[in-house]
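FAQ: What does the model actually see?

It sees only this:
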Amino acid sequence: MCKFSVLGFLRFVWSEKSNLQLIVDGFLFHLDKKCGSQQFWQCIYCEKTKCRARVITSGEKMEKRRSLHNHQPHSKIIKNESLW
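And it is asked to produce this:
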């Protein structure tokens, strides 16, 4: 079960393994790395389907996005439950 909170247009969720994830347009991303104030996210299917979609955020704002997914959105596994 995923839980989410909306921060502007970014939605953050906790995975079943308690890892922070980002939802953008129905796709889930996990945090790949941080560099200064920037967070680099990659699609959760990066290994499963070799999806190359990525998002860069800074605080609560999306700075850059490469959204070429090679699979359908993750809408079936996203639950609409409040994070707090």
